Amino acid sequence: MLPASAPTKIARFDRKDHFPQGWEICIAQFLELFHRYSYIYKPLSGGSWYSADDKWKLPDSEILKAIACVHPKFFIGCRAGKATRFAVLDIDQKSRYHNKQSLDKLLHALSDAGLPKSSLYRSSDSGGWHLYLFFEDPISSADLRAQLIKLLTLNDFQVGKGQLEIFPHPGGDRSLGLGLRLPMQPGFAWLDKKTLEIEYERDELSAPQALELFVDVLDGDANSYAAFRQLKTYNEQLEKRRASAVAHGRGEPASNVVPIRRTEKPVDTGEFSDFVQAVFHRLPPGIIVDNWYKGRLYHLNGLNGPSQRAESIECVGHYLFYGDPSRDLPALGYGYEKERQWAIEEYLKARNNGQSYDINRGRADAFAQVERAANWRPAHKKGDEPQKYSPVVPISWVRENANRKADARKRISNALDGLKERQEKFTTEELRKEAKCSKETLYNHKDIWHKDYEDLAEGFFAASTDEYNDVVGAGSTQTQPPTTSLDPNMPPGRLAARRIAYEISMRSQRDKRQALKTAATSQEESESTWQDEVTRLTQKEPSTLSIPEIKVLLVILAVYLSTAPDYDSQAALQAYLSELKEQLNAGSNGPRFVVRPP
Description:
Helices cover 48% and strands 8% of the residues. It is built from 20 helices and ten strands. The strands form two sheets. It has a six-stranded antiparallel β-sheet. A four-stranded antiparallel β-sheet has the order 2-1-3-8, covered by helices on one side. The protein is extended.
C-alpha cells in the first residue's frame, strides 16, 4: 500500500489492451481522418476548451485513449487541415433546429443538392447533434465549408454559433479556425435519423465495437467526389433562381411570362373580375380574383397599416402564383414553391414600410408564415409531387425538321455540282438561287459548299494574272469614252481590276487607321510620362521643403502646368503650386504676430 503522501501513479496506455491485434487497418483508417496540429483539449472535470501549441503534434496514442474512453485528463478535439474526408453539421441542444421537423428539412436540402448519405450522432452528454457527411476522397476544407454554408443559407437556415455550425472550419490568415470534438468519447451515441431514438450508447460498446461501427459508415456510406461537384452546380442554380425571385419580389419586370392553359369551366368571379379578365384575357383556373387584386396592390404599394402582414403574405403569394402579364411578372406556380417563398420574403423586407412590428424587431419567426403559405397546396394536390412545367417538342415536329434539313442539304449539294461543272467562279447568290433556299439556310449548311467555293476562287485568280489590265471598253486619247458593256456576266479582266482597286483603297484606309492608332498611343505615352514626372516632383509636402527647393519647383512645375493633359490634372497641379507659393511667402516674410487685447 502506497503512503498517503505518495502521488497517484497513472497507468501507461497500451494499445493492445483496448484494440487487440488485427484491428490495425481500422485504426489506420480512423487516424488518417484527423489533422494533428493545433488540436484542442478540455478537462474531464469541465471548463473551457484550450488550444495546444500549433507546433505540437497530437500523437496516435492520445486519440486512441480518447476514443477508448480511458483518457485520464482530457476530452480531445482536432482542427481542420487543408483537405478533409468529412464535414459535420453541429446542432446544439438548445438550437431552434434541434427537432425532427428541422432535421428532416435539413436532410431534404442536402439530398436535393446531391448529398443523400449522412449519419447522425449525439456528440456528448449535453444532447447536441453531430450530423456527419463522409466523402470517398479528400476535398478542400475551405471549399467544402463555403459550399455547405451557401447551401444552408439559400435554404433559410441560420448558420452561426449556438444554432447550426459547420465543420470543417479552417479559419483564415490570422485565425486557426475552430476545432471539433472527436467522436466516440464519453457521452457519444449513435442515433436513428428517422425516429431520433438512440441505437447505441458509447459506454455500452467496447472500443473495437465502437470503432467498427464508425469505420463501417466511412467505408459504406460515403458520398462521392462527383456528389460534391453536383453540390457546387446545384448552389449555382439555386443562386440564379433566388436572384430571379428577388427581382420578382421587388416588382422588377421579367423577360418571359409563363402561359396558362385556357379553361372552359366557370370561375368564381369577384369585385375586380373585369380588371383581372382584361389582364389575362381569360380567367385562369382556380384564381381568386379578390385575393389576386389585393396581392397586386400589396406588391405595388407595400403595407400601409398595422396587422396586414398575414393578409399580404396570403394575397401576394396568390398573386405571384398566377403572375401578372400586364407587369411582365411570370407565374410562379406548382414546382416553384422555393422561388415563391424567396419572392414573398424579399417583398416583406423591401416593402413592409415599417408597419410590421415583428419585422421591425428583427424576430426570426416573422417570416415563418411565408414558408407555410408558399408550400400550401389544395387537397387534391397534396398527394402529388409538384413538378415544374417543361415544354415537350412533339415527335412529329422533330421528324419534320429532320426531313426539311435533309432536303435542303440535298438541293444545295445538287446545285453545287451543277455550278462546279462550269469550272467558273460562282457567287453565293448564284448558289442560293440554284438551290432554291434562303440565305440563312445556305449558311447553316456551309460545310457542303464553302471548300469548293474557296478552291474555285483561288484557281481563278491564279490563272487571271495576264488579264488585269484587259478591261472591256477601256479608252485612250484616240478613242471615244468607254462604253458600257452589254454582257450580263462581268468579264474576268474587269473583275480583277476592281479587286485590285478595292485592295488599294483598303490599304490606304488601313494606313490611315494605323497613323491614328500611332498618334493615340503616342499621346497616351506622353500623358503617362507627364503623370509620372509630376508625381515624382510633388511627392513631398510643401512644409518640408526649403526655400531654394520651393523656388526650383515653382519654375519646373510651371512648365508642366502648361502641358497638362486634362483639366483634372491641371487643377491638382495648380493647387499644389498654390501651397508652394503660400509656403514661400511664409518662409520669406516670417510669421505674422497677432496682438490680442489683455
